[in-house]
Amino acid sequence: MEIWINPACSKCRSALTLLDEEGVQHTVRRYLDDPPTVDELRAVLDRLGLEPWDITRTGEAIGKELGISDWPREPAERERWIAALSEHPKLIQRPIITAHDGSAVVGRSEEAVREAMRRSG
């Protein structure tokens, strides 16, 4: 299991605390320091079953600067969104947890983190 975090994020810290309390082995990826590639983003989106606009923090300053909230949310624009997430990882919703069954969740709630743990066995 891997968890993508921003250490300044309270939801990330809560998710890490829960994983640690439950003794779940995990790898931490500080995605602002180690941004995901376009291919990694495509893979995690497939695992999440979501589109890039579903995991984009449009309220971030860089998002406003890019005008990303006005970008079309359609298949033809998917790669544009993914490229923006890769170039500006601060736009990525967090934490993202990949489970051992090949799925992933956005772990913003205790329930979502527990679901990732369940999926990981």
From TrEMBL:
SUPFAM superfamilies: Thioredoxin-like (SSF52833). Keywords: Oxidoreductase. GO terms for molecular function: arsenate reductase (glutaredoxin) activity. It holds the Pfam family ArsC. InterPro entries: Arsenate_reductase, Arsenate_reductase-like, Thioredoxin-like_sf. Belongs to the ArsC family. This is Arsenate reductase family protein. It comes from Streptomyces tardus. The lineage of its organism: Bacteria, Bacillati, Actinomycetota, Actinomycetes, Kitasatosporales.
